[in-house]
Structures are given as structure tokens and as C-alpha cells.
Amino acid sequence: MITIEQLKQSSDLIKKIRPSYGPILDFYARVFLAQEKCKQDIRISPVVIEEDLLKIKQKNKLPLIDQSEFLIDLKASERLFDKICDLAYNFAPKLSSNAQLLKNAGQTQSFDLKTLFSAILNNQSSTLHDLAKRLNVPEQELVFFGYASIAPSIRICSEQLEAYLIDMPDLNKGYCPVCGNHPDMAFLDPEGKRHLKCCFCAHEWHVKRMGCVFCENNDKDSQHYFFSDEEKEYRVNLCDNCHNYIKLVDLRQIDRAFYPKLEQITTLHLDMKAREKGYTNAGSLANDVSL
Ligand SMILES: [Zn+2]
Ligand SMILES: [Zn+2]
Asked: How far does the centroid of ligand 2 lie from the alpha carbon of residue 242, in Å?
């Protein structure tokens, strides 16, 4: 677990190596800090899974819960929403005016944050669509502010659920064993083992080193990757079978504390390159990023 101090240091180090990400980091590093601080105030009771249900899930290699079952601390999420709107107003010029609008709308009760949070958890795209239209804010921005505000609760909930996985064999699948969502990033640990990170609950799980994480294709001819000599810590794996890509961070090549979301936001050039080549990523970036 990374401390707030380490997060600050890692962000400063990345800023030095890749100055073009300075303005982006000025905003996002502050958002990540606010989320980490928020985590310390969150109070939620753990999601309980009955033993019989747990056995069925294990047998069928199903995730522990559906994302709609995550519990959130509403008060803490509302406070964080205001905080992130303020940060956007001050440090994210492109989001600035909508951030102010959203904060005001939230405070005048012209829209209920609870509705937004619940629509994100339940993946109700029509509700999100209508809400965005009514507030006259791009849907993707609305989802970004909403998701960023509940992400700490979701993470705490998923950390609590991890207790159920301790004695279970690795599923070795390309979906999150906690909530079933896709990974948005992979990393190699100091021993060279491959892990994936969930795009929704940020749970990290171990998988085999080789093969596509999305379609489980192992055929060498359809698995490729690219990297740049200036950034030896990153690689992008491409699969010609399902046309997905995933970014991989090699922790053996970095001398900073690893905070996945920080690495994610400062490798957007790799996403662009992979997309130019015609690949997509099933673990969408849309939750975490709004540029
Ligand atoms: Zn998950
Ligand atoms: Zn694939």
C-alpha cells in the first residue's frame, strides 16, 4: 500500500521525466490525493456472501459480486464530489466551467448525487444520458466526476471482499474475481509475475504470464507488443484475435512507488498509439479520465 507522501513523490518524479504531462498531473495527482484522503474517512459495513452462494461462485468461476452490489459511503462521496469539482475548477481548464455548474447543481438540489452514483453502480446508461442532457454536461464528464467520487468507497468495499479470495485458487481469468469487470492495466511484479488491475474496483489479481487476457488466445502469431526505448518500464500488448490491447508496467524497471492510476494517466500516448493501430481496450478508460 502506497502512502500519500509516496504518491506525491511518484507524481513529482513522473513530472520530471515526462514534462508534457505536467498540466494533466497538476489536476489528476490532486484528485488521487483527495481520493486517498477520503478513503481514510469512509465507513461502510462489509458485503456478506453466504457460504452456499460462495461455493456456487467458486465452482462456476464467477466473480464474488456484481458491481451494483458495491456499497458506498454517501456522505463521504458527496464531500469528495465537491472537492473534485473545486480541483477541476482550479486545475483543469477544460473541465472548469462544467465543474462549477455541477457543484452548484448538486448544492441547489436540482439534481441528486445519489441518483448519479446509483446510475453508475447499476450501469444505467439511459439515466446517465438523461441526467447529462438535463444538466447540459457531456455524459462522459458527468460519469468521470461521479465515478471519481465513489471510487474510494468501491475500493474499500473490494478490499473487504478480498478476504473471500484468500483461500481460493486463482481464477486466472481476464475478468475481476471481485466484481467481474475487465482489467484496464497489467503489471509485472518484482518477480516477473503478471497481475491485472480491475477498471472498476481496482482489485489486483495474478494471471499467467503469457497469452491474451481478454480472449485467452495463446497463439504466438496473434500476440504482439510495442514499446519505446525511452520508456523501458512500459509495454503495450496487442491481440490480433480479439483486437484488444492492454498496457503493462514492469515494476522491475521503475524506481518510484507504483500507483497504478498515476501510471495510467501518464501513458495516454500509448493508448493513442494502440488505438491508431486499430486496437481497443475492453476495460474502458472512460471512468477514470476526462480530458
Ligand atoms: Zn473489480
Ligand atoms: Zn485477445
From this structure: 4
Q: Please check whether residues 41 and 135 belong to one and the same domain.
A: yes
Query: 155 CA to middle of ligand 2, Å?
Result: 27
Which ligand sits closest to the CA of 205?
1
d(CA 164, CA 46): 11
Same-domain pairing of 25 and 145: yes
CA of 72 to the centre of ligand 1 (A): 15
Of the listed ligands, the closest to the CA of 218 is 2
Run of H or E including 123: none
Do 24 and 60 reside in the same domain of the chain?
Answer: yes
- Total number of domains constituting the chain: 2
Q: Tens digit of pLDDT for each residue in 171-211?
A: 888 999 999 999 999 999 999 999 999 999 999 999 999 99
Alpha carbons 229 and 225: distance in angstroms, whole number = 13
Residues, beta carbon < 5 Å, ion ligand 2: 212, 214-215, 217, 239, 241-242
What cell numbers appear for 266 in the block?
501518464
Question: How many whole angstroms from 136 Cα to the centroid of ligand 2?
Answer: 38
212-233: per-residue pLDDT in tens? 999 999 898 999 999 988 899 9
Domain boundary among 165, 195, 223: 165
Query: In this structure, which ligand is nearest to the CA of 287?
Result: 1
Q: Coil, strand, or helix at residue 186? A: strand
> 176 and 62 in contact (C-beta within 8 Å)?
no
